[in-house]
Amino acid sequence: MQQTNFPFEAIVHDDASTDGSADIIREYATKYPDIIKPILQTENQYSKRDGSLIRAVNAHVKGKYVAECEGDDYWTDPLKLQKQVDFLEAHPEYSLACSDARVLGTDGELNWHRYNSSREIPLKDVIVKRGAWIYTASMLYRWELMQDYPDYARNCHVGDYPLNIHLALRGKVYFFAEKMVAYRFLTPGSWSLSTKINESYFNPWYSEIRMLQGYNKDSNDRYRKYFQRVMGKIAIFYLRKVPSMKQQVLEVLPDFPKWLNLSDKLKWWKIKLGIKSRKSNS
Predict the structure, then answer these.
(1) Domains of the chain (ranges plus CATH)?
(2) pTM higher than 0.85 for the full model?
């Protein structure tokens, strides 16, 4: 549905699925050979957890800009690419353009609020608001800025959050107040619903902390208070879910209680004293 005055291609990756998706991709690749560029795996790459999936997709990227659209989301504005490319072409100081979205939950559309008007997103918001603040399906960014993407970001258990930080540290981020895409939240088949937090979750937690520490170091501590605030909130969030992680968390972040606001400090003392919350999942 995209209407542009420039050529674009859609790199469609199928990770050895068994539901007939590959046949559908082949059909579209036959109809639109100049647009649809299929990558059809015979062995699942995601399960390897060694970066194979990302490397496979990135090897096919030839464009100046990249826009992402994961399997559970979709674009709604036929001029999405045109508007974003026009903006980045006219504003070389910007590394990323994104937009508002229709957020679809199990009970209908959610009223998630970002900004009232189109504007630059402050670096503070990119860091502190975390990955869900910028909808992945709404993003379009300069591919050249990804050539120095660090291993600590590549190995993080989430993909959108480190990508947002990486781009925001290398240029400005622009937000279109228009709802150009649809983003699914906690609906069947979505990533947000499949995430489970239990005793085995320390490694994913640690990968996110390592990513934040890495970008803090690479930015020469200029935004340390923002990174510390986020790491403290992440620690509290997971400790409330899995209090048994307490010793491991303190070994990695011994000073994190100092970074907490008053509300989170109260949560920390409850965890420390072994006081169970009435709403353990809150």
Answers:
(1) 1-62 (no CATH), 63-195 (3.90.550.10), 196-273 (no CATH)
(2) yes
